[in-house]
Amino acid sequence: MEKRNKVFIATSLDGYIADKNGGLDWLHSIPNTDQVDMGYGAFMNEVDAIIMGRTTFETVCGFDCPWPYSKPVFVLSRTLKTIPEEYVGKVQLVNGSLSEVLKQVHGQDYHNLYIDGGNTIQSFLQEDLIDDLILTTIPVLLGGGSSLFGDLDQALNFELVSSSVFLDQVQQVRYKRTRK
Amino acid sequence: MEKRNKVFIATSLDGYIADKNGGLDWLHSIPNTDQVDMGYGAFMNEVDAIIMGRTTFETVCGFDCPWPYSKPVFVLSRTLKTIPEEYVGKVQLVNGSLSEVLKQVHGQDYHNLYIDGGNTIQSFLQEDLIDDLILTTIPVLLGGGSSLFGDLDQALNFELVSSSVFLDQVQQVRYKRTRK
């Protein structure tokens, strides 16, 4: 079965996923009264599980809303030993090398994976483990914060698959990795 | 007369304008046999002069091609005292604060300015002096190099004006600064 690791994330024009104070308010700087989902629902239908880092997990837990995922979530963590009771059945802890983690997840028959969280995405990219990259760009220069992308040992070529604009203001481009 | 400072530049997916070795080969990673100019000619028609940093000037001087600009070029430099003879009449040296530099350039009746070079663009953005930003994205993650964007004291909001794809692979988005 084909296995694909996918990223779906919004950045500022200067490539940040959180502002200097860790804030995410700028993500909502474009009015969205009709709650256009900017492809998120369609993307979630493409994946059968989510892998995220602990920081992202704790951020999502802190959101003032019900648990937002209908797919199984795997949380990468070396420090967490147990999942808070309310997340049991929704979330599994995983650790080890990324290839070990992927083996565990694939072993549960999940093959199309949503890879989320800045550190996790960077780790996957460092090992050239990302196949699809859907980048949504909010038209603001934050001038600092947490970068989506980090250092890589080698350049990675992608191919533009499609491009759209939401709400007249938000560019979204889908790329896939081209391996020669 | 309305004055506008404009940026037209290509970056990698991760926001670099030169790779780890200062190289620009990746800019040509998408085959362009018909030499599509990706809006460069139309952009040059919008501007009446160019302001660039010394590093960019020296890079352009090093290209194995005739001087590529038909518009006057102002080179920002604190260290250069004279322009090499072959560039006299094409290039003027300017220095001082950006507002002093702009005053000199506007004084010569140039009002729509192409601001070029990483350091120069960053300096203009730090003083919120960029009005139009045309960003062309090559679908490669370089994983390091010279970043287009740098730190800012304040976030700067832009508005998406238009979006196009060249050569099926190269996304170009035009933004303008929205000042409230």
Name the descriptors.
4 helices; 11 strands; 180 residues; two-stranded antiparallel ribbon; alpha/beta; homodimer; eight-stranded mixed sheet; globular; Dihydrofolate Reductase, subunit A
Describe this structure in words.
The structure is a homodimer of 180-residue chains. Chain A is α/β, with parallel strands linked by helices and 180 residues long. Chain A has a single domain, classed as 3-Layer(aba) Sandwich (Dihydrofolate Reductase, subunit A). Chain A contains four helices and eleven strands. In chain A, strands 5-4-3-6-1-7-11-10 form an eight-stranded mixed β-sheet, sandwiched between helices. Chain A has a two-stranded antiparallel sheet with strand order 2-9. In chain A, β3, α2 (54-62) and β4 form a beta-alpha-beta unit. The model of chain A has no long low-confidence stretch (mean pLDDT 96). At the A-B interface, β7, β8, β10 and β11 of A face β7, β8, β10 and β11 of B. β8 of chain A pairs antiparallel with β10 (156-166) of chain B.
